[in-house]
Each structure stands twice: as structure tokens, then as C-alpha cells.
Write a structure and sequence with these properties.
The chain is an alpha/beta fold and 471 residues long. The chain has 3 domains: 60 residues, no CATH class; 122 residues, EIF_2_alpha (Alpha-Beta Plaits); 248 residues, Rossmann fold. It has 18 helices and 12 strands. A hairpin with a 5-residue loop joins strand 2 and strand 3. The protein is rod-shaped.
């Protein structure tokens, strides 16, 4: 994936990223609200040597103090100082717990020590800091007094006593919310990229081409109204979905152009990819283009064409195969000139046996001789073998791939099922792709852009023409 692909992923998964950001901000707000406020009080101590009589001794004493300051910072946070403070103030708190509240630091190349005590109570924080500083001054004097001497060589002096803090140092809601938002956005972006990496569903035409080895003949945009009006014959002439099928009709003409009469099986990897509505609408588009078309309901297990076309389903393909009715009598005319439909007929107990029979081969040959194009709606390839058996008797299969549902593995296995019986995919129909916005021509692989005439302009032109005729 290059940078452009990552940008596309982030744009496509923006909702996931936003949700992660909101969740982490909410967690940060909850933690900030529920956390106990902590107050910090600090005191500063100056470490110096005593008894320096000249500049050389003063310089040596200063270096000695610098070395001692680093050790004193560790002593301040130790158990001994905390124990003495607990004893001095008669606290119920353990020395270990108090030691965790104490911190000490020193600036580089200085003899200034800063001791800080944090506590939920600001007054108590000040009291503890004063006590720690006082105990530490006495402790240094004790440590640095040589045996037999009355005066320490180094002393610590409180130069800035502790003060009562006015505001807590934690929690910091602004900082927590900002960090939560940044962390959430980063987690969301990572989750989006991971999900995209693990997602094997087909989302672009670039994913299809190497899997199938056949051209993409058309891309049908998702239409929420397709459930109520599945057929393009019920749509406006310039509806995007109708335009997409006309583009598919045009591209289909370039498949085996030297063959005058063609037979294609329309199938998919799994149910629910829109193969039946694609077959019906393609047949309607071909008939509207002047072709003589036969649409065969070859899905004997779940026949739907008769329902969409409102035709009789009692007689049809199975009736003709078993010889109970001639083909000419089983084929039904439709409201669209040039389109005839052979419905499934009665559902047999052995669909695969019927579809691979010699009678089925003879029926396909008879339809080929009578029609310009024969389209056979076949069952999906992965659940059953019917689709592959039909494709082996046709000129090839048109594979319907549903955007965002069909996976690359499913397409690969579907192609293998076709090749196993000597059939081949001759084209792909990318179905239910996200609708494009904006106007434009229905070009390329069949993006369903609308390009209807401007009704206001047409009305104005008509009124202008009427006025000229009247004059």
C-alpha cells in the first residue's frame, strides 16, 4: 500500500476512527472526573560547606557540596527520612507510603535541592513538606558531623519554605482530553489499516482483474430503490442503473465478436450477489437494443425470474428437458419486444442430473439457433455444481461479484470450479458498488452516472418552437 492507498483507507473508515477518538476522549474525561485531586507543595534547600578560610578551600568545598547533593536527593526519598517524619508528626501513615509521596530533584551544577510532597489535602501537603525539610536538615547535620566534632562539615539550609498549593497538579483535564483524542485517533487509524489489511472482500476493480483473468464488463452502482423496483423497465430512461446496463450491453458485444449467436451463463460465487436481477436487466437492455434474446431460468433450486417477470412458472425448462412440452410452447413472450423467457418449470429432485443431460445440450443448441443471445441464470458456483455444468455447455460465464461482500478467495474458487469442467469466465460484472456523486456520462466500465436532459431547457425549447409555429 502506498500513501494514496492509506489516505483512501482513512477516508473510507472515517467513522471507525471517529468512534475510537470519541471513546478515548470519553474514557479520559471519566478518569479525570473520578481521579482524586493531588496537590504538590515544594521547599528548596541550599547545601554548603563550613569552615572554608580561603578561596581554594571554598572552591574545594563547593565541589564537595555538588557531589553530596546527588546523594542527598536519594536520601530524601528514602525510608529513613519518611520514618522520622512519621514519628515526628505521629502519623498513622506507614513510612513506605509516605516515601512514595516524596520526590526530590537538583539542578545540574547547583547545590540547590528541591523537595516536593504530594497529597490530596493541600494543607497536609504543605505540612509534610515542611516536616521533610526540617527532618532532612537535622539528618544532614547528623551525618556530616565527624566523630569527636561538634560541627558538621556540610549543612543544609531551607531557603524557600513550603507554601500551600492553590490548585491540584493532577488530574489535568485539558491535557488528558487532548492525549485521549490523539491516542484515539491513532488507535482508530491503526484499526482502520488493520481491518483493511485483513479484509479480503472485493472493493476495487484492481482486485478482480488478476483473480479472474477476464475483463470487467460493467459496474452496477448500488441503488436503494432496487428492492422495490428491481427491473430497469420500471425506471426512467435516463436512470443511472438503466444507463449502467446499457453500457454493460455495449461492452458485452466485444466478447467473441466473430460469433453471431452467443450463449452466456450468468452466475456468482455465492447467493445474494445479485446475479438473477443482473441477468433479467441485461436481457431487457439487450432486447431494447434490438437483439432477439432468450432468458433461461437455469437456477432450478431457487428460481426467481418468473417472480420478477410475473410469468407462469409451472412449465418451463424442466418440462422441456423431460419431453413433456416442446420448447416453442414452453417459451413465454414478455412485454418487451424481442425478449422471451424460459422459466424453470417444476423443481426437480435432481437438478444437476438434468442440467448435464444431453437433452439440456440439445435445448441450448436449439435456443442458439433461434436467438441472437441466450442468457442462462445459473445457481452460484460454490454451493452447487449446477452453474459450472451449464457454463461448460455455453460460450462462457459472466461472473457477478458483489462489492464489499464477495471475497477474493471465493472468486478464486469460483473460477477454479469453472475451469475444472472446461468452462471459462468471459467477463465480470461488479455489482452494488458505492454510488458515485456528481453528473457525468455513463462511460468506461459502466459507472452509473445519470445524464438526463435538462427538463427546464427542454420545456423552454418546446415553448419557443410552438411560438414560432404560431407566428
Amino acid at each position: 500500500m502506498d500513501l494514496r492507498d492509506y489516505v483512501k483507507v482513512l477516508r473510507a473508515r472515517w467513522m471507525l476512527i471517529a468512534v475510537c477518538g470519541l471513546v478515548t476522549v470519553a474514557l479520559a474525561a471519566l478518569l479525570s472526573w473520578s481521579a482524586t485531586p493531588q496537590y504538590a507543595s515544594s521547599a528548596r534547600l541550599f547545601v554548603s560547606t563550613q569552615g572554608s578560610t580561603d578561596d581554594a578551600q571554598a572552591n574545594q568545598g563547593g565541589q564537595f557540596s555538588l557531589q553530596r547533593v546527588k546523594s542527598y536527593a536519594d536520601l530524601l526519598t528514602g525510608q529513613e527520612i519518611a520514618r522520622q517524619v512519621v514519628d515526628d508528626l505521629e502519623l498513622e501513615e506507614s513510612p513506605g507510603a509516605l516515601a512514595e509521596q516524596i520526590s526530590a530533584s537538583s539542578k545540574l551544577d547547583t547545590v540547590i535541592l528541591t523537595v516536593t510532597v504530594t497529597d490530596p489535602d493541600p494543607e497536609r501537603a504543605k505540612m509534610l513538606t515542611d516536616a521533610v525539610a526540617r527532618v532532612f536538615v537535622a539528618y544532614v547535620a547528623e551525618l556530616e558531623t565527624p566523630p569527636g566534632k561538634d560541627e558538621a562539615t556540610i549543612k543544609a539550609t531551607v531557603v524557600d519554605p513550603a507554601s500551600t498549593p492553590g490548585s491540584p497538579i493532577s488530574p489535568n483535564p485539558t491535557r488528558n482530553l487532548a492525549l485521549g483524542l490523539v491516542l484515539g485517533l491513532l488507535l482508530g487509524a491503526g484499526a482502520a489499516v488493520l481491518r483493511e489489511t485483513l479484509d479480503t472482500t472485493i472493493r476495487t476493480t484492481r482486485q478482480i482483474e488478476p483473480l479472474v483473468g477476464a475483463p470487467i464488463l460493467g459496474t452496477i452502482s448500488f441503488d436503494s430503490d432496487a428492492v422495490g423496483t428491481p427491473l430497469i423497465s420500471s425506471l426512467d430512461t435516463y436512470a443511472p442503473r438503466a444507463e449502467a446496463f446499457r453500457v454493460l450491453r455495449t461492452n458485452l458485444q466485444f466478447i467473441d465478436p466473430d460469433v453471431e449467436r452467443k450463449v452466456f451463463v450468468i452466475t456468482s460465487s455465492l447467493p445474494g450477489e445479485g446475479k438473477t436481477t443482473t441477468a433479467v436487466n441485461l436481457a431487457l437492455a439487450l432486447a431494447e437494443g434490438g437483439e432477439k434474446v432468450a432468458l433461461v431460468e437455469g437456477d432450478l433450486r431457487r428460481p426467481k425470474i418468473s417472480e420478477y417477470m410475473r410469468l407462469e412458472s409451472a412449465v418451463g425448462l424442466t418440462t422441456t428437458i423431460i419431453g413433456r412440452l416442446p420448447l416453442e410452447e414452453a417459451v413465454q413472450a414478455t412485454a418487451t419486444d424481442g425478449l422471451h423467457v424460459l422459466t424453470s418449470g417444476a423443481t426437480p429432485p435432481n437438478p444437476a442430473e438434468l442440467l448435464k443431460s444431453e437433452a439440456m445440450g440439445s435445448l441450448i443448441a436449439s435456443l442458439r439457433s433461434q436467438y441472437d443471445i441466450v442468457l442462462i441464470d445459473a445457481p452460484p458456483l460454490l454451493p452447487v455444481t449446477d452453474g459450472a455444468l451449464l457454463a461448460a455447455q455455453a460460450d462462457g460465464a459472466l461472473l457477478v461479484v458483489r462489492h464489499g461482500k464477495t471475497t477474493s478467495d471465493q472468486v478464486t474458487v469460483a473460477v477454479e470450479r469453472l475451469e475444472a469442467v472446461g468452462a471459462r469466465p468471459v467477463g465480470v460484472i461488479f455489482n452494488m458498488t458505492p454510488a458515485k456523486t456528481g453528473g457525468g456520462y455513463g462511460y468506461g466500465y459502466g459507472y452509473g452516472y445519470g445524464y438526463a436532459p435538462d427538463k427546464d431547457a427542454a420545456r423552454s425549447a418546446a415553448q419557443s418552437a410552438d411560438s414560432k409555429v404560431g407566428a
